[in-house]
């Protein structure tokens, strides 16, 4: 009897290991999908800001907008449109799934308030810097913004006293080297005007998202990921729309009608179609990121999501350059190589490559 019992236990253990491996493998695929969707979000928001009234604002500028408005107000408006529509998608999906009540209840809790604070950093600040970078330097900004895990690791050392091991320092060094590879394309005499400025704003976006990631670690450990993302998108969309855009408008000495631009942006059919798609891609990307993290571990999930440093430029090239035939969306070979090197550096920060090899048999 003991032999039969032992055999049954071995079979049960093997079945449990296979189930765990399959679950982890599915989590990896979901986390990788989040990186791809973030690439398409980048491409579609950029496309939306090249259509309809946006084409005039950034082109002929018959409205006579100042350089400040074109750089900052329009970037904040683009981020506001995307995040507001992303919030609409999030709320609609939560309502369909009968979870709207959970959203409002979580807003009244401490973890919910933590998510709100994190969204204020990752939304109005980081998202606007990201859009400014895209408008100034193009898709080369994407792998720069993907440095957020580097900033997250450094900030975690100071905020939560987490150790910076030799492996993490090595990964940070690899990422910095990759950033220099990518940024070197903006140092030549033939670099587009505003390239270095765009890269600078990409670094600010990476810092903002790195800070958000540190803070969100607390909130998402106590809130369902679907509700947490809904809180994040609603906070980001509303704060961009009713706080950041008006503030930038008041800062413009030329006296721009910021709310008039908001109305024009929301009523512009040719561009709103693409903003709706970019908003959906952004929502799904965040959703799959958190879900993937819960299934395969935060470290591995973060690494898989960070593949958007490759997918961002690729999707921009595919959508903007190939499908719509817009010039200026090709990348130098060193920038593509830098994106791949940065992915490797992010993986080194997130987990020990030797541990991944040791688990290969169970994946």
Please describe the topology of this protein.
Layout: H1 2-48, H2 53-58, H3 67-96, H4 100-106, H5 110-137, H6 141-145, H7 148-159, H8 166-183, H9 195-219, H10 225-251, H11 258-266, H12 269-296, H13 298-305, H14 308-323, H15 333-350, H16 353-358
Helix pairs in contact: 1-12, 1-13, 1-14, 3-5, 3-10, 3-11, 3-12, 5-9, 5-10, 7-9, 8-15, 10-12, 12-13, 13-15
Keywords, separated by commas or semicolons:
0% strand, 363 residues, single chain, 16 helices, mainly alpha
Describe this structure in words.
The model has no long low-confidence stretch (mean pLDDT 81). By secondary structure, the chain is an all-alpha fold. Helix content is 80%, strand content 0%. The chain has one domain. The longest helix is centred in the first third of the chain and has 47 residues, at 2-48.
Beta-strand fraction estimate: under 5%
* First-last Cα distance: 33 Å
Work out the helicity level: over 70%
Return the domain count. 1
What low-confidence regions span 5 or more consecutive residues with pLDDT below 50? none
Structural class: mainly alpha
Total helices: the number is 16
Order of helices and strands: HHHHHHHHHHHHHHHH
Average pLDDT rating? 81
The major sheet is characterized as: none
Please tally the β strands and state the result.
Answer: 0
Radius of gyration, CA atoms, in whole angstroms = 22 Å
Tertiary shape: globular
């Amino acid at each position: 009897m003991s032999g039969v019992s032992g055999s049954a236990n071995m079979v049960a253990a093997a079945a449990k290991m296979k189930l765990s491996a399959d679950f982890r493998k599915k989590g990896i695929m979901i986390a990788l999908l989040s990186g791809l969707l973030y690439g398409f979000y980048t491409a579609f928001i950029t496309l939306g800001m090249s259509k309809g009234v946006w084409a005039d604002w950034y082109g002929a500028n018959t409205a006579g907008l100042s350089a400040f408005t074109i750089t900052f107000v329009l970037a904040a408006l683009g981020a506001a449109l995307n995040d507001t529509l992303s919030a609409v998608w999030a709320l609609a999906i939560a309502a369909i799934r009968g979870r709207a009540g959970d959203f409002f209840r979580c807003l009244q809790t401490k973890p919910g308030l933590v998510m709100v604070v994190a969204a204020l950093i990752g939304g109005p600040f980081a998202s606007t810097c990201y859009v400014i970078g895209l408008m100034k330097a193009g898709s080369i900004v994407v792998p720069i913004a993907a440095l957020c895990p580097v900033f997250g690791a450094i900030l975690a050392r100071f905020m939560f006293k987490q150790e910076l091991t030799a492996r993490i320092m090595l990964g940070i060094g690899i990422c910095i080297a990759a950033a220099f590879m990518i940024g070197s394309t903006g140092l030549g005499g033939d670099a587009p005007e505003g390239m270095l400025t765009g890269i600078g704003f990409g670094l600010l976006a990476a810092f903002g998202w790195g800070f958000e990631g540190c803070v969100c670690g607390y909130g998402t450990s106590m809130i369902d990921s679907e509700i947490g993302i809904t809180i994040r998108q609603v906070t980001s969309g509303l704060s961009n729309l009713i706080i950041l855009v008006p503030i930038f408008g008041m800062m413009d000495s030329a006296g721009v009608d910021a709310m008039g631009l908001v109305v024009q942006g929301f009523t512009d059919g040719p561009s709103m179609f693409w903003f709706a798609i970019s908003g959906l891609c952004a929502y799904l990307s965040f959703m799959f990121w958190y879900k993937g993290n819960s299934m395969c571990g935060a470290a591995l999930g973060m690494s898989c999501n960070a593949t958007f440093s490759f997918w961002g430029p690729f999707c921009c090239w595919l959508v903007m350059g190939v499908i719509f035939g817009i010039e200026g969306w090709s990348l130098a070979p060193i920038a593509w190589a830098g994106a791949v090197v940065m992915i490797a550096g992010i993986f080194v920060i997130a987990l020990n490559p030797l541990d991944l090899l040791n688990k290969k048999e169970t994946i």
